[in-house]
Amino acid sequence: MARSETASDQLVQRLIEWGIDTVFGLPGDGINGVMEALRTHADRIRFVHVRHEETAALAACSYGKFTGRPAACLSTAAPGAVHLMNGLYDARIDQAPVLAITGMTYHDVIGTHYLQDINHDFVLNDACVYSQRVMGEAHVIPAVDMAVRSAIGHRGPAALAIPIDIQSGDAVTGDRSIKNIEGHSAVAALDGRRLPPRERLEDAARALSGATKPLIFIGAGARGAGDEVERVAERLGAPIVKAMLGKDAVPDDSPYCLGGYAMVGTRPAQNALSRCDAILIVGSSSPYIEFLPDPTPPTRAVGVQIDDRPERIGLRYPVQVGLCGDAKLTLSELEPLLEHRQDRSFLEQAQAEMRDWRALTEERAQPVDGAPIKPDAIPFHLSAALADRAILCGDSGTVTTWAARTELRRGQLFSFSGTMCSMMAALPYAIGAQVAYPDRPVVALTGDGSLSMQLGELATLAQHDLPVKVVVMRNDVLGLIKWEQMAFLGNPEYGVELSPVDFVKVAEACGLRGVRIDDPQRVGEQLSEALSAEGPVLIEAVVDPHDMPMTPTINTEHAKGVAWGLAQGEPNRERIALTMSRVLAREMQYATSPAGALTRAKDRLTERLPGGNGHSGGDA
């Protein structure tokens, strides 16, 4: 039977014209018309078959984050489309361009309680910047063009739902209307980068140049502008603090970098945020406002913010000057207007604290006789083991802290589900990153709670020969929830136990190589060996479930909560108490540890004595 061109052919050909070369998805009878068009155009567009539609959307989100270009995700009608939603919300909230293509029931039974009859365009509307159903073959090109423009222009997901019969051209959908002139919609380059007016830049320069303790706070909007951020930091003598989505914007080994902030941050970063008298916010609307400088007068820091979304200026901090523009272009124009500060004492104090912090992280990674692997050992050794151009994909849970403490070098990339905070995102993100960059090493750092949600995607790695390295930190517990139940609410842990899974055997059954790390003395050696192996590898690191992430934001209320939770009948109270007492004893000498109150007091006293160097290790 001769095959004529269908609406699905038009759709796929238009995607190719827009430069979309990858579709992540799962076939189904509600999308088979599009699947046939993908098959016949397979030399120009790649279909990556995943095991769950949520993975397809998250992988497409990752692809968009790492490349700046949209990929597509595809599903069948109804349940398949609903499964996409978490990944589409992730893309919308974190501003990643994605095109979602879903099936839909037959066009002339929509709204009659037919099989898989839901209004896809309504269902996905809140998750997407654009969501429409295709009404016929003549509607395909205008709808695809608008969807792709919306995804690129708004940096978010756009969705198209296509009824089954329209996909294959079986439907009699009517001729083109007199308003739909053939050829009126075009594929065109989209670049909407803007610059703020000169007078605003001058206002910002005056505000920042008058500060004595300036700080730069960056997020995802600073990605691609790292060199410009560092040049401004040099001019101002300012340390740089990073929101997690901006982790790879400036490398962790930069002399200006203090790492992250808030619950997954460093103590030097929190100290600097609490002491600064000016803050330059670049491309961040990170939600943890309680960890930013005090916004109330008279101690409020002078605020300047750069963002290409005007509605985000002043969203998290009461800035005096808002610069609506592209971060790279705006910083390039701002830098020569800034005075070069000779006083580097604020930066030098932060750098001294970072030296103490790094010594502390190394101490935390050391083996303890008779104890399991300390969780801190994984990021410490992973930092050294990552290849120069590696891409690291993080996850949600206590593993977010360990991803934050994995230090990146220049040229390495990172992302995760930063605002949606979706568990099980690391592996789908790694799939998207590896497809986008087949020549770069890709590592997924995840936890056992997250990985067990999407174990089928290990088979995806084997099926497509994606050489992703999956590092799963196994402690047989939902660790973040456990510690939140105790520290925030003063309750014993409940409902957080995980039945043990032998991830090595599961990986091997899926066609991967599996490696187990359970010897504290061999963590670095085994990680380096596994990351350098050919093909996909799963690395199961068995870590101490009773070792609490010692974050710089721990306060007396959290300590009381943990103590109350232990007293209320915490089943592992003896092990937790023993582990915590060991940690506190080992860390008393480090000013950047929560246990270092005596050291910080000594530093403050030394600072006040004649001949003191004016540097202290932090606030108690």
Please bin the fraction of helical residues.
Answer: 25-40%
- Major sheet: order of its strands? 2-1-3-4-6-5
Shape: globular
Q: Let me know the number of strands.
A: 18
What's the CATH topology label of the largest domain? Rossmann fold
> Which whole number gives the mean pLDDT?
92
**Named CATH architecture of the largest domain:** 3-Layer(aba) Sandwich
* The CATH fourth-level homologous superfamily of the largest domain: Thiamin diphosphate (ThDP)-binding fold, Pyr/PP domains
Secondary structure class reads alpha/beta
Number of helices: 24
Quickly name the level 1 CATH class of the largest domain: Alpha Beta
Give the termini separation: 79 Å
Percentage of β-strand residues: 5-15%
Main beta sheet? 6 strands, parallel
